[in-house]
Amino acid sequence: MHPPPPAAASAMDFSQNSLFGYMEDLQELTIIERPVRRSLKTPEEIERLTVDEDLSDIERAVYLLSAGQDIQGTSVIANLPYLMRQNPAETLRRVLPKVREVLHVAGVEMQLTAAVSFLTILQEDSVSIHTYAHSFLQVILLHLEHRDAGVSNAWLETLLFVIEVLPKETLRHEILNPLVSKAQLSQTVQSRLVSCKILGKLTNKFDAHIIKREILPLVKSLCQDVEYEVRSCMCRQLENIAQGIGTELTKSVVLPELIELSRDESSSVRLAAFETLVNLLDIFDTDDRSQTILPLVKSFCEKSFKADESILISLSFHLGKLCHGLYGIFTPDQHLRFLEFYKKLCTLGLQQENGHSENQFPSQILEQEKKYISVRKNCAYNFPAMIVFVDPKNFHMELYSTFFCLCHDPEVPVRYTIAICFYEVSKLLNSGVYLIHKELITLLQDESLEVLDALIDHLPEILELMSAGGESSAQDSKFSSLPDLIPALTAAEQRAAASLKWRTHEKLLQKYACLPHVISSDQIYYRFLQRMFTIMMTNNVLPVQKAASRTLCIFLRYNRKQEQRYEVIQKLIEQLGQGKSYWNRLRFLDTCEFIIEIFSKSFFCKYFFLPAIELTHDPVANVRMKLCYLLPKVKSTLKIPADKHLLQQLEMCVRKLLCQEKDKDVLAIVKRTVLELDRMEMSMDAFQKKFYEKDLLDQEKEREELLLLEMEQLEKDKQQNDGRPMSDKTFEKKRRDTKTPTLPKSVSISVPGPSSGTTSTSKEIKKSKLIRSQSFNNQAFHAKYGNLDKCASKSSVGAYTPSVSGLTKTCMISLTDDSFRTRNASSAATSFSPNTPLPSTSRGTSNSVDPKSSGSKDVQPRKATLKSRKSNP
Predict the structure, then answer these.
(1) What is the pLDDT of residue 47?
(2) φ, ψ dihedrals at 234, nearest 5°
């Protein structure tokens, strides 16, 4: 082995020396730190911080306030509300005097803590108002003028709350009389600012003659103060004062002061005067608005572009309220000017004439751009009010171009605000909502998820207005643009899925539940339903998976084609219920819970009861545990005596879990579930008084499911008779144009199977049935989704059992361990053939059927399937 070259050796020596040097430095630091650590734990300090454990709460508080450190005193003051609740008399007698002494020399933290504690004692009503005023009021007043502005504001907030509850006499002697001297020019600016806020609060507490004689002179004096901060503060209190003194005094006293302040040399005072005038518009009559306020507003708007941009921000924020308050007194020319002023604000900072000066620094340019963004954001906020201002009928001519600019604004806060307002705009436009369809697509495709999140809060209502609004001559042009909606919705979902904002993704999937009311079931089936499956099986966020599962169930609920419904059910059972991943089987149980909530009892028992209770044999404890939690809901779907055989199967599975379960957590849940199942009352085939509302709800669900089958069969008959299929557009139009009549309970509905021939009823009866079945979605699925919300709070109870020929085949139900038959796991990914029947259970059928009638050659016992799962964990 060759020795290293000299250079390398020297480098190595250097690095070693450096290492030893670092170690010596560390040792020196350790030596330096040791005395510091020892000095923090001297016996003297330990003795000083030690408190006798035998002291009571009151004695300990007194001791700490007298001899403790600041942090201990602050702790006692923070604990003052507790002491007042426990022993108010001793706290007031012994602790509060010590608190007064400590606050004279207390720091900022202790002062802030005391202000909060005093307010808490008042809010908790620990003592009477008289006692509180006698004990605490003078302490609050004493510290109002603390040298620290934060402390002064904290005590002022506490005082303003106290003023609300104090009696008039106390207010007059303790607060109003001293206020006369505190508001004089000889006092400090802070004292006069505090006086302004107290005057604004006191006005509502006294009679008119006291206000006129004692308060209004102080108000006038402070409005003419030499300091602009005092004038601005007093101006903002004039709104409260005007509400307390009435209309007449407001016109004679407050309005002249506001007019004078609106011409003040300080921009902050003029801004305060303008905002106060806007807030008081409702008090003034038409003459005052037209002769006094309108000229002031015009002058303010004309000078706003030449003044500071902060005035523009306030003006843009109050413009909607201003136009609403002055509506009706504008001349046509004034109306047009205000509208043009609003349009100019909407594009402020985006046009060439609004460019920056060459003499501005980058920081100034950035600050100015932020102000311009705030102005445009406020304009977006006021857009619904401006629609009212111009009349919705004139939207296309007057405001559409402005709306287009706001929806395409380069800044996210502007687009976010207009997305929030989109629903209000849609409601105002009513039949003209089709005019903003392209802007809806634009916001759905926005690159910012914040904009999408703001838009989807009211997405169901917006889409319903889009699909149902405007039954006018322009209907064809509106619905021709609806296909643009589907790519935008799918792109929005994919963009949300690719981001880390899973809550936005979850919310979007929940809102997709409205789609059956907007687009056809075929469009949902081919563009959205498979995507829900993919999310359920591949997404890693549980709330997102559950949202996709529930939306898929709603899609299935309103699907109009029997073949597609069967395929979805088969996929749910094979890919989720019999999936290799235990996570998929857990999602299957979630789906079963949604099925129970959304569908009728008979639907769940027919298709999902047996696949669900098969999971009692699942090799994964978490799956069995989740099923145990679901079993009470599963049992609630049964009706006696029709479902007696299913009840026996359920009892057998629970009995096996009790006897064979080895996991202690699952066993504990099984035992609790057994007790709950025993306490449950079974629903009967006939209506029961205690379950009457639930039975009616379930009967309505079942009736709607039968109407779906009727609708499909009658459509087939119509196609055979007319020789041409009914387009989805025509069907949707008829569904909207028709109102669903209330079906009488006594009407019996027979549903022809897919293999049965056409009925012998007359064409008129067929036509009435078709109209009724085509329109039931419009009744059952309104904007608030009331039926589905009711389902969430009420368990499903079956009313009667449908007998549908050709739709179901019974499967063999045995009481042995190996009785559950299912498809092989290898066929889970295959597509379901419409000719292959689902494993189902029909009410009122016999218990034993030839196993060959299942039509499946690849059935295996459940035990074999479980073994294959164990080999593939």
Answers:
(1) 65
(2) -65, -35
Residue 270 near residue 263, CB atoms below 8 Å: yes
Distance from C-alpha of 609 to C-alpha of 633, rounded to nearest angstrom:
11
Count of beta carbons in the 10 Å neighbourhood of residue 147: 8
| Residue environment code for 454-474, b if the CB has 16+ CB neighbours within 10 A, otherwise e | bbbebbbbbbbbbbbbbeeee
Rounded CA gap, 873 and 822, in Å?
Answer: 20
Model pTM?
Answer: 0.72
CA distance 218 to 177: 11
What is the C-alpha separation between 22 and 410, in angstroms, rounded? 55
The pLDDT score that the predictor gives to residue 868 is 37
Residues with Cβ within 8 Å of 308's Cβ and at least 6 positions away in sequence, in order, are 267
Contact 575, 828 (CB under 8 A): yes
Q: At what angle do helices 459-468 and 422-429 cross, to 10 degrees?
A: 20
Contact 696, 761 (CB under 8 A): no
Residues β-bridged to residue 810: 840
The whole-angstrom separation of Cα 413 and Cα 622 is: 45
Q: CA geometry: angle at 733 spanning 730 and 739, to 5°?
A: 130
Decide if 782 contacts 516 (C-beta within 8 A).
no
CB neighbours of residue 318 within 10 Å: 19
Query: Has residue 776 got a pLDDT over 90?
Result: no
Question: pLDDT of 223-266, one tens digit each?
Answer: 999 999 999 999 999 999 998 888 888 888 899 999 999 888 88
Nearest to 421 by CA among 464, 392, 451, 466: 451
Cα separation, 847 vs 644, in Å, equals 10
Instruction: List Cβ neighbours of 721 (8 Å cut-off, separation of 6 or more).
Output: none
302: enclosing H helix or E strand: helix 294-304
- Classify residue 410 as exposed, middle or buried by CB count within 10 Å of its CB (0-12, 13-18, 19+): exposed
